[in-house]
Description:
Blueprint: H1 23-48, E1 52-57, E2 63-68, H2 71-79, H3 84-137, H4 139-145, H5 148-172, H6 175-188
Antiparallel strand pairs: 1-2
Amino acid sequence: xxxxxxxxxxxxxxxxxxxxxxxxxxxxxxxxxxxxxxxxxxxxxxxxxxxxxxxxxxxxxxxxxxxxxxxxxxxxxxxxxxxxxxxxxxxxxxxxxxxxxxxxxxxxxxxxxxxxxxxxxxxxxxxxxxxxxxxxxxxxxxxxxxxxxxxxxxxxxxxxxxxxxxxxxxxxxxxxxxxxxxxxxxxxx
Length: 189
């Protein structure tokens, strides 16, 4: 025993019985345990001749089944002993009804959200159309489309407006203030 070689690994460890949080680990654990469960059920059938049916749903709600001789034959035999078939049908109806109600509620919520988003979409379309209309009417857009003689007329008109503004400033006695601002502005350039 003194010459025993030390182990390089710690061996199999017991996994605590608690819900696995990570979906990837959950799926791997399910796949391994499902295979083990079906192997044990098969061994039970071979060793004792028992009739076994196992139905398991994966985390992704996919059904997996094992049965010996078959799942259907075991379920039929089990359900036909007494009123179990009627109870099973009732439970199945109740489960399907609750699922349908959940799906209806989810559908209604999604439709409400869709209506809200469609209203937002319409408001945005109107705002975009309004902005495009304003852009078409803007002076910059119109000036770019003017010909040379029209531009000369516009220049004379603007010079006339500028002259009127100067006269008004002179009348108001603000000429001095404007000159000071011009000088300051020219010094900055």
